[in-house]
Amino acid sequence: MATTAPSPAAAGASGGATPPPAARDDRVGRRPLVATLLSRPEVGSVLGAVVIFALFLVVAPVFRNPASQGTVLYTSSTIGIMAVSVALLMIGGEFDLSAGVAVTTSGLTASMTAYQLGLNVWVGVFIALVVSVGIGAFNGWLLMRTGLPSFIITLGTFFMLTGLNLGVTRLVADGVSTQNISDMEGFASAKAVFASTISVGGVNIQITVFWWLLMVAVSTWFLLRTRAGNWVFAVGGDPKASRAVGVPVRKTKIGLFMFVGFTAWFLGMHTLFNFNVVQSGQGIGNEFLYIIAAVVGGCLMTGGYGSTIGAAVGAFIFGMTVNGIVYAAWNPDWFRLFLGVMLLLATIVNLVVKTQAEKR
Known about the structure:
Blueprint: H1 8-13, H2 33-38, H3 43-59, H4 66-91, H5 99-117, H6 121-146, H7 150-173, H8 187-194, E1 197-200, E2 203-206, H9 207-225, H10 227-237, H11 239-244, H12 249-275, H13 286-296, H14 308-327, H15 335-359
Antiparallel strand pairs: 1-2
């Protein structure tokens, strides 16, 4: 006669033990949506951008004009292009205080080389690229060679470049700015690449906006989808542990400084071809704007945490604020105060958000 297995109830009644429920593996469990959102470095900056955008929509009618938004985007891009590389460098645990004057060095090099030697403008552009990336490589090499803080090394580079920019310009160009190169061979094509304007829906948008968005997209993919991107987080979090598990700390950090040099070159070329000349005293203090954009966007000062999307949002906040104050007819004397308050609040908010996300 066929027999049937006893039911769970019967087994329990007869004293049989029921099998324990399967243990849940937390490694494959889904995180709550709120925890996932809070874990993103840029969440605080996005909320801040929404608030500032809404504020200027209300208090400054001119801000609602599409042309005004084009101006906001352009201002944001001139900070955002550098904020991309500075954010990556900060995630890697380092700073570059020479980033602002390095932009000017790039523009001066391209202009004076082409003008003084009577070369095609593109030759000057290429030489400036080599010089800018070389400055970044020098900063990274000296950092790894000496073990000194990047703050000290790049502060020294800042002063050297500031002196060179002024001294060489006076010596070569006999003034504090370069000569106008708008009539030189290659200028028109270079301007089309670095400083042209594109009409979108009847609104003129500077090409730097599109280059900026492309850099943000590529750097985000690099940071989140490549092995080298993981190395950036690793060397920023713990360089010694990273080196112990085979991460090329030296190459990673030098490469990050070289990328800062590359973006400095790009922005320097925009400055040159947008205005035809470069002033030797430009760029001083802009390095702090790049750092502020990165910090507002979620980068921690201690390294190992942040995103380039957040840095882009931080640059957009800067662009909205600079132009929004003008559109609202507010006193611009208070702008620096706003920057300082924004930096402190962003640092505190980012720290709180990160701490809460780690608890969930």
